[in-house]
Amino acid sequence: MSNSYFFPVEGTILLCSSGSVFTLSQCRVTLSSTDCYIVHEIYNGENAQDQFEYELEQALEAQYKYIVIEPTRIGDETARWITVGNCLHKTAVLAGTTCLFTPLALPVDYSHYISLPAGVLSMACCTLYGISWQFDPCCKYQVEYDAYKLSRLPLHTLTSSTPVVLVRKDDLHRKRLHNTIALAALVYCVKKIYELYAV
Description:
Helix 2 crosses helix 5. The protein is α+β, with helices and mostly antiparallel strands. It has five helices and eight strands. The relative contact order is 0.15. The longest helix has 34 residues, at 72-105. It is found in: Mitochondrion inner membrane. Belongs to the TMEM11 family. Keywords: Membrane, Mitochondrion, Mitochondrion inner membrane, Transmembrane, Transmembrane helix.
């Protein structure tokens, strides 16, 4: 699959590689294969926002290495959604770690006041992540801030000065990490509750 992007000037008639004739606003020019996709901010009619969202969804499903989102609204929404996923992951890990290590640092009579709530929080975040986030294509992407990597992308073709750039990253290890820690926290909480109330 090859990538493409819109030129900023519209109205010119071009012959695309498929042999069909399109206006410049419709025809796309080939970029490097599966590396970068640009969602340009070109408003053609009342359904432009829906078109932006559709293009983004297609780019996510196609698993491009980089996705550049020029429309401000959808770019900000996507960045916030990724931030939410990152927050759930980090909270699950940190809370689960607190749950498991608090009994080692505090007296036994008091440690469960911290470890149990932390364990519940870790399990809640892990469960929420698993239900509403891990199957979303966005979970495979992070917002790219590295200036060197950004300089290698064709951002000079954009009309926006503040595009959101997504980079695809393997999230398998971090899923395993927070799932393992949350599971360990669950085992600890069940064991501790049994000791406190059932014995």
